[in-house]
Amino acid sequence: VQLVESGGGLVQPGGSLRLSCAASGFAFSFFRMSWYRQAPGKERELVAGIPSGGGRTKYADSVKGRFTISRDNARKTVYLQMDNLNPEDTAVYYCNAVYDRRNDFWGQGTQVTVSS
Fold it and tell me: In whole angstroms, what is the distance from residue 46 CA to residue 50 CA?
């Protein structure tokens, strides 16, 4: 099982980034996919989630209207489009795949830094 995040980096306030998470080794289309983030000194928090078939997505209040989660089941990839970034969005972003308690997988994380 692998979840490999990419697309992080340094961006100025107001800028955009698109994170990708490429999955392998499990039945991606059956899993709920989510993005979490963890800032220094803070707990990991849910940023956005999307069910196995797509459709109704969920967002943290702090990112609603700025971030968009999507998935491509054929490519086994989930994306997080992040627009109008601000310094409070600085964190390590993690991809998560869940089917049930026994099938709960995490990526290694990708750093997003928002700074001028």
Answer: 12
Tell me which residue has tokens 């049930």: 100
Do the beta carbons of residue 17 and residue 9 sit within 8 Å? yes
Q: What's residue 99's pLDDT? A: 97
Question: CB neighbours (10 Å) of residue 97?
Answer: 24
Give the CA angle between residues 27, 31, 36 to the nearest 5°: 125
Identity (one letter) of the amino acid at 116? Answer: S
Name, in order, each residue with C-beta under 8 angstroms of 91's C-beta and a sequence gap of 6 or more.
Answer: 37, 38, 39, 42, 112
Main-chain dihedrals φ then ψ at residue 102, nearest 5 degrees: -85, -20
- The proportion of the chain whose per-residue pLDDT surpasses 90, expressed as a percent, equals 97
Chain segment 56-113, per-residue pLDDT in tens = 999 999 999 999 999 999 999 999 999 999 999 999 999 999 999 999 999 999 999 9
Closest CA to 78 of 27, 1, 16, 4: 4
Among 81, 22, 76, residue whose Cα is nearest residue 57: 81
